[in-house]
Amino acid sequence: MYLDSAYIAKFYVNEPDSPAVRELMFTAQTLISSAWAIAEVACVFHRHWCEGSLEEQHVSDLLDAFIDHVEAGFWNLLPVSDAILRRSALWIKGTPHSVYLRPGDAIHLATAQDAGEREIWTSDRHMLAAAKHLGIRGRTVQATQQRPR
């Protein structure tokens, strides 16, 4: 299961959809993302500190736990290689001007595609919209919760 950085951060930080994201993660055999997530997850923790929802020590503890999980292989983070960056650039070149892209989104999508993933889990509306241009299905817990069982 490919997760973007925001979903990884929800494993550690309590946000409104964090419980549903955690539940989803525990159904996966493997949790995959880009190594780009290391910097992005750290930035999410820092943002929470800046916004006042986390204390500095808690941010430090969360980052330590995240790095420990990365080193233990809980998160399968794929490298940001030159090939991924080039693929991102080529994909961006061919993307319609109506699709809003940020570097991290492009890297996550190219990494997911390179890993053979058919879906990417995110709550980011821009990534959800862009995913279809690479033939990847954008998924979010909100969408799965609305479907009748």
Architecture blueprint of SSEs:
Layout: H1 5-12, H2 18-25, E1 32-34, H3 37-51, H4 56-72, E2 76-78, H5 82-93, H6 103-114, E3 119-121, H7 125-131, E4 137-139, H8 141-146
Parallel strand pairs: 1-2, 3-4
Helix pairs in contact: 1-2, 1-3, 3-4, 5-6
How would you describe what is shown here?
- The chain is 57% helix and 8% strand.
- The strands form two sheets. A two-stranded parallel sheet has the order 1-2. Strands 3-4 form a two-stranded parallel ribbon.
- The protein has one domain (5-146): 5'-nuclease (Rossmann fold, 3-Layer(aba) Sandwich).
- Mean pLDDT is 92; it is low at 143-149.
- The chain has 149 residues and is mainly alpha-helical.
- It is built from eight helices and four strands.
Structural class: mainly alpha
Physical arrangement of strands within the biggest beta sheet: 1-2
Order of helices and strands: HHEHHEHHEHEH
Low-confidence residue ranges: 143-149
What is the arithmetic mean of pLDDT? Answer: 92
For the biggest sheet, the summary is: 2 strands, parallel
User: How far is the N terminus from the C terminus?
Assistant: 21 Å
